[in-house]
Amino acid sequence: MSGTVGLENHLRQRLAQKPLLLMTHLVVGYPSLDANWAMLEAMDAAGVDLVELQLPFSEPIADGPSFVKANQDAIQAGTTWRAYFDLAARAATRFRFPIVFMGYYNSVFRMGAERFCARLSEAGMRGFIIPDLPPEEAAALNAVARERELDPILIMTPTNSSARLAEIGRQASGFVYCASRKGVTGRQTDLSQGVAAFLERCRTATSLPLGLGFGIRTAADVRELRGLADIAIVGTAGLEMWEQRGADGYRQFLKTLAAATI
């Protein structure tokens, strides 16, 4: 990791070239590891700026039905930690975009903070998103992460108080994941309903780039975020596009999303 440009600086360099970045997501092992690689190739070809790789977990509490099923199917297919990190390491070597871990704290706890951070670093990953780990419980993990030059990417939500947002802002690094609404991923979000005001509250709490996720599904949604957020985060819609229209439809979908960021 030494010599790697920090994630925040990398994102700022990208933001100097265009007004909005695009972050995409996949569940490792679903529908297969070979399909994951084809998805990553499509992301790279479309010019995606940042990718989160989800480690399958049995109770993904922040995820909607599509991702819950994907997690369950990946686990049933026998997707292991080794397979996860092998894919991440291959992708970090092959593709231009930074890669971050997304998963749940039970998995991290079982591995242990030192080993978890070492594996991320060795695989060339840049940080992690752990939705069910509250900031007040994360100090030890975050300290180990920063020794490895990994960024703990924290989540801000519309229900957070101003004091809570400020505390999250103090602990976050890399960028901040702003959840557009309470609830789980996948459901369409009406971006006219308070999203701009929410992002303004987040801006007062941190100087880091802001990514907006939860319900960003179309190129029109992405275009609406220009001038509001720094990163549009698209997860469920991509997975559903792969399921409904296959690799070709998926590639075209990513290209239309990426075009909406320019």
List keywords for this structure.
262 residues, alpha/beta, 9-stranded parallel sheet, 9 strands, globular
Q: How would you sum up this structure in a few lines?
A:
This protein has 262 residues and is an alpha/beta fold. It has helices spanning 7-15, 33-46, 65-76, 81-94, 105-111, 113-122, 139-147, 162-171, 195-205, 219-224, 236-259; strands at 21-27, 50-54, 99-102, 127-129, 151-152, 155-156, 176-179, 210-213, 231-234. The chain has a single domain (7-259), classed as Aldolase class I (TIM Barrel, Alpha-Beta Barrel).
Record the SSE blueprint.
Layout: H1 7-15, E1 21-27, H2 33-46, E2 50-54, H3 65-76, H4 81-94, E3 99-102, H5 105-111, H6 113-122, E4 127-129, H7 139-147, E5 151-152, E6 155-156, H8 162-171, E7 176-179, H9 195-205, E8 210-213, H10 219-224, E9 231-234, H11 236-259
Parallel strand pairs: 1-2, 1-9, 2-3, 3-4, 4-5, 6-7, 7-8, 8-9
Overall description:
With 262 residues, this protein is of the alpha/beta class. The protein has one domain (7-259): TIM Barrel. The chain is built from eleven helices and nine strands. It has a nine-stranded parallel β-sheet with strand order 5-4-3-2-1-9-8-7-6. The chain is globular. The two termini are 30 Å apart. Residues 182-189 have low confidence and may be disordered.
